[in-house]
Amino acid sequence: MVGFTDLLAGACLLPAVYGASSSVASSTSSAPYHQFTIPASVNYGENLIANIDDPQAVNAQDVCPGYKASGVQQSAKGMTAKLQLAGEACNAYGTDVDSLDLIVEYLAKDRLNVQITPTHVDRHNASWYQLSEAVVPRPKADKGATAENSDFEITWSNDPSFSFKVTRKATGDVLFDTTGTKLVFENQFIEFVTALPQDYNLYGLGEHIQQLRLLENQVMTIYASDIGDPIDGNIYGSHPFYLDTRYYEVDAEGTHTLVSSSAADQSKDYVSYSHGVFQRNAHGQEILTGTDKLTWRAIGGSIDLTFYSGPTQPEVTSSYQISTVGLPAMQQYYTLGFHQCRWGYQNWSVVEDVVENFEKFQIPLENIWLDIDYMHGYRDFENDAMRFSYSEGEKFLDKLHASGRHFIPIVDSAIYIPNPKNASDAYDTYTRGAKDGVFLKNPDGSTYIGAVWPGYTVFPDWHNPKSVSWWSNELDIWHKKIAYDGIWIDMSEVSSFCVGSCGTGNLTLNPAHPPFSLPGEPGNIIYDYPEGFAVTNSTEAAAASAAASSQAAAAGDGSSGASSTVSYLRTTPTPGVRNINYPPYTINHDQTGHDLAVHAVSPNATHIDGVAEYDVHNLWGHQILNATYHGLLKVSPSKRPFIIGRSTFAGSGKWAGHWGGDNYSRWAYMYFSIPQALSFSLFGVPMFGTDACGFNGNTDEELCNRWMQMSAFFPFYRNHNVLSAIPQEPYRWASVIEASKSAMAIRYAILPYFYTLFHLAHTTGSTVMRALAWEFPNDPSLANVNTQFLVGPSIMVVPVLEPLVDYTKGVFPGIKQGEVWYDWYTQTAVDAQPGVNTTIPAPLGHIPVFVRGGSILPMQEPALTTREARNTPWSLLTSLSSQGTATGKLYLDDGESLYPNATLSVQFQASKNKLTAMARGNWKEANPLSEVTVLGVTEGPHNVTFNGQTVPGSDVNYNATSHVLSVCGLQAMTADGAFSKHWTLMW
């Protein structure tokens, strides 16, 4: 769902096409019901010029004095010191804090923490908010961790002001260095600067739609925003974490020399070292990358840096999750199936038709989703009685569940507040919440009332100790009426369609239409199509272009009442006072005018503990995921909750997955979905996917064909699009049907591999979707590759990411070191050269997929649901390395229990013409093993045995051209189950 920022002018009164309750509509006799439209003007904030764009902005590095360290106390565990202002306060963007506490702690061999906080936390003077450990725990320290056994060394200096360096002992490389810069620490502005090597390789610092490796001279704003996927701008999530990878040339004497990844030479040998940095601060932030430095700014909070030494990306990511933000949630097996959604399924009959069409065309479908269409007046936890009645829903869901499928509805983040003059407008969810006082307040103690889809709304206060139990109870009550299987949390930045408490005094106008037209309403007809559409569909494209031009002309300048003369508001700091609505330092927030209150609850909204939303805005989405997780445990105490959420923070992965938000049906957004997914792998949120075929705008056949295939290899696989755009279910085009089924056949076959990867992520902090540079860390040429990706260590996908072509290009990593890659379809080894961007044929409907040599993939047969797939015989795809070896893993349980009482782990190993399976655990897997396929067998076998028993020659096939050995007919030999005992296959 989208909270649109393109506000269109409209009449104050519109027909009751949106949000009107049936009881209100029926009370108007024969006259048509008219609904109040919230004025567009209420969603315009102040125009503030971002400081980075302001020619009058002060450079704090030039005018501030920095600090001097004194009273330094060092120990085996770290050090402490007092930092005092080194000169006259500059008060550049707030009030300088005259005294700071420095704490350096060696947390473990691979972890170091540096904290800088105000010595005196006085709410009346400094108004300082320290991030609660109950919300975001501090990194754990290991017993026995000391400076002596640390991978790091930290040094400091007072020349000319306080600075510090963090060095990797093993290489002497300085990883973090503030030398020659000033520490600026004010009540509304923090700044520190670290040096970086030339041509650095940084990843992370999200959430943004951008390339994987961060660009130089870029401004990355971290501030949760309800906006439809602007490229490079801040969007839904807040993840102040980055990975830094550095490459070294190794000479004959073993000397390591730092080199630029762009200067990689395939004739030379390299090694890499990676480290991570996490800034535990939830305030609005801005990170600026220079050519040789990184500047980090925040509009509040503290400095709380944790360094992770790696030295590889997997070790950094694992340590970050295990020690700091938490391991990602284990997903239920069914969630790895295909998900279908759209904004615009009008009733249960339409939804049932969608499911039946998937069955008709034999396209796998696991989960059907509903957007806000199902709601009564767009209110959480209430179905529209006319279109989505509970009785019809019960019949539909009984049938859906009997077929092995599941239902996931959207739940928005704001709560409708009833019209006090309309007795029939009662809303029990609000009433129960108001009784417990769980909603945000204004500074004067009155209820903060914004506006979202239903009209004027209130917002849960997650600081209230009663809020989680209230939310859990609402989920439980609703589940008794409609048996959903998971929850989709939207609008959780948290979004509001007006600036400030605009509903105060206006509740008699509820329910109200948003202050902009919805897609499909007059003046907002969707005419957009992807790049290349004019070539393949010239007539339709010309008609759409003409209609779009007419619509734009009719809308005028689209200002909706906004002033045509833009004037900027600059605020100056007042000593000892915080201006939280318009802070003196304005971050480069993507909303119009940079006002933090546009499309969001205002910064001065107040929590029950007195904390202002300004201090915790980036945590609202994180906390609703926590509340929803516990609510789903109340619904089904023994099942793993399935949640997909929009706004996330560091650690949200332990409760939920994430989708890429309101992307566009454009090739550019298909392209950017790969780096976005890989970034969330770094952030510890492996259950990630984007809306296949795009959400906003109209898709077309070619884009949907390619995107449905690519998304089949993302962890979360969903098709979803906007109200009034053309339908884009995969059965809408014959070619997309075949393309989807082709890619889904691979996905469903390797579901056991996907599930095993998720278990490893859940238990060890590993990643599911991977960048090539992470899996092959000693090849600098891979540092900026984000047009292809790996699923785990063994599957590589090279999608087509542009229109009107029948090929793609990809690199095959590790070839120089003897790595072998096999084409999934032909099962033959790829002929590729090291470091070469190889052209790969890819006609429409074909996605290149490759299997890494040395891998063993446990597979089952594709089916229309995961339940059916789990009841099919097993097979193994063994792709031998150049040394004739391979390994693999399998994890199984019941696929849903929070704490399974029966599990099975299988280790596979192949070497010297022998494949073994070693199983342990008490999960009884009844399905037999039917087939083993071995790739890269250079000589035909004379005899094949399974646990010493000869396999009949009729069940053995060897292709001397492709070097593929297939052994079939193993069901009888594994009738007790494929992994009921250890076994060995020899050839």
UniProtKB/TrEMBL annotation:
Stated role: Hydrolyzes malto-oligosaccharides, but has a low activity toward soluble starch.
Source organism superkingdom: Eukaryota
Glycosyl hydrolase family 31 C-terminal domain location: 765-857
PROSITE patterns: GLYCOSYL_HYDROL_F31_1
Family label: Belongs to the glycosyl hydrolase 31 family.
Reactions the enzyme catalyzes: Hydrolysis of terminal, non-reducing (1->4)-linked alpha-D-glucose residues with release of alpha-D-glucose
Species annotation: Penicillium argentinense
UniProt KW keywords: Glycoprotein, Glycosidase, Hydrolase, Signal
The protein's name in its UniProt record: Alpha-glucosidase
